[in-house]
Amino acid sequence: MRTRFAPSPTGPLHLGHAYSAILAHDMARAAGGAFLLRMEDTDLERSKPEWAALIVEDLTWLGLTWDGPVHRQSDHIESYNARLETLADRGLLYPCACTRGDIRAALAAPQEGVAHAVYPGTCRARPMADRQPGDALRLNLGRALALLDPATLTFTETGPADAGTHRVDPATARTTIGDIVLGRKGEGIVAYFLASAFDDADQGITHVIRGEDLFDFTPIQVILQHLFGLPTPIYHHHRLIRDEAGKRLAKRDDARAIAKYRAEGASPADIRRMVGLL
Ligand code: GLU
């Protein structure tokens, strides 16, 4: 078993992250497997080295150990882009100039309350030769799906909410995923779920353990895995740690930052107790 914790260093580690990291760590260690740490810092505006450093400090304080050096996505942007471009050679990408703000939001890691709107396909007929600086690169999903055998588009989920084998239905994918943005050339940005899918394969991750807020990205990642000939890991989407009002904790919830509990004298065991792991 090889698991990983893959935070986006855009804020302090809070109880929700701690739960995710401890779960992935403990599952790997219990199985005699490996646990890896990856900084998903391709969002160059929101990611900060200070946050990455604090995350490492907090995880170390929690008593977690990882195998090998920390994998920083910002060190691999060239390689992600080169791989993304191979889809252009296969006629599966097109340039898109629809609202820049929408494109930026589509590329970033998910935030609560930001729904993923299915793109109507306005720029679909544009050839790649037409690409302008700042254009997004969109996947022509219809064409991509036509290349894949629908019977193979499945994944195994072992998390508490949706355990079982899930099928990625092409018709549903067309209406719920659509022509997603995979990157933006020139600014070195690739979509978080694409970089993550490449890394899960490159790092030999067998079990992706992450919050259930990311469940809806799994069908997208399964389609991408098939397009790039990558294996599909087993997925385990865990419950989210919520505040008293039932709201999912976000990076901005500094009140529940691990650093704050540390400063107040909490122990790693206290944190485990707070997230229900002791
Ligand atoms: N970097 C993502 C986040 O912090 C998690 C990605 C994943 O676990 O697949 O939301």
Overview of the structural elements:
The protein has 278 residues and is α/β, with parallel strands linked by helices. The strands form four sheets. Strands 4-5-8-9 form a four-stranded antiparallel sheet, with helices on both faces. The protein has a three-stranded parallel sheet with strand order 1-2-3. A two-stranded antiparallel ribbon has the order 6-7. The radius of gyration is 19 Å and the shape is globular. The chain contains ten helices and eleven strands. It has a single domain, classed as Rossmann fold (3-Layer(aba) Sandwich), CATH 3.40.50.620. α7 packs across α8. Glutamic acid (GLU) is lined by residues 6-8, 40, 109, 196, 210, 214. This is Glutamyl-Q tRNA(Asp) synthetase.
List the SSEs and their pairings:
Layout lengths: L1 E4 L9 H16 L3 E6 L9 H13 L9 E2 L4 H13 L3 E4 L3 H8 L28 E4 L1 H6 L7 E4 L6 E4 L2 H7 L4 E4 L4 E2 L1 H11 L4 E5 L6 H10 L6 E5 L19 H6 L4 H7 L4
Parallel strand pairs: 1-2, 2-3, 10-11
Antiparallel strand pairs: 4-5, 5-8, 6-7, 8-9
Helix pairs in contact: 7-8
Bound molecules: glutamic acid.
